[in-house]
Amino acid sequence: MKIITQTFILLIAVSVFPLVIFGQTKSITRENYLSALKEAETKTEKEIRKEVSIQKLYANGEITRTLTNTTEHLPPDRSRWLGITAEGNSVGRIEQILVGNFYYRKENEGEWVKRAVVDDEGIGLGGGFGGTDDSTREYFIEEAKIGKEKFQVLIEKTVNFNKTYFDERRIWISKKGLIFKEAATTSFMELKNIVSSIDVVYDYKVKPAKIEPPVK
Asked: Which residues contact 75 (CB under 8 A, 6 or more apart)?
């Protein structure tokens, strides 16, 4: 399951949006939003970090499935990912290790399988809810405070083409220009209830992971 990994950079946001006032939401253009996104991805990908993403799927207000993804990044070309899916009494587990031009994958208690990165289009962990029309998207920026720390927050709001679902995505950016956390929801508009939510937290203080190929 692809989980959201899209990111933004504070320095670009500040230079493009100098008039944003604390606590006030300001509308921005799609071009500015995408520019900030690209710059932040470049900056974040250079950092040693750990990301924990939790996605919850709902039906009639009840959680039906939970997907927990933990990724350890060791730039420039190593990462380790663990994905756990819980649905009722069933629990699935997938591990994936990336080292250079190869990745290694194991499902549940199976054997490790080695593949070249170019052989598979699905090793990325980014993603979204999809199925939307760009013309219905709106972009905003605001400032927020968590504890004593201030953040820039970039926001994307989307209504799909037939107006059945509403997506909202928020990214918190620290003063250092690094992603602090992400949050996204998809709601069924007619009933105004959430059908999916994703929360991602970033930790840059972790001890660098030792990531090696599990098999030759």
From this structure: 45, 46, 47, 48
The residue ranges of every structural domain in the chain are 10-203
Q: Which residues of 131-142 are buried (b: 16+ CB within 10 A; e: fewer)?
A: ebeeeeeebbbb
At 69-120, the pLDDT tens digits run: 999 999 999 999 999 999 999 999 999 999 999 999 999 999 999 999 975 4
Q: What is the amino acid identity at position 123? A: I
Is this structure's pTM higher than 0.70?
yes
Cα–Cα distance for residue pair 179/193, rounded to 1 Å: 28
Contact 15, 180 (CB under 8 A): no
Out of 2.50.20, 2.60.40, 2.10.220, 3.40.50, the CATH code matching 10-203 is 2.50.20
Cα–Cα distance, 201 to 181 (Å, whole number): 4
> What are φ and ψ of residue 146, in 5° steps?
-120, 115
Mean pLDDT of the region 141-168: 91
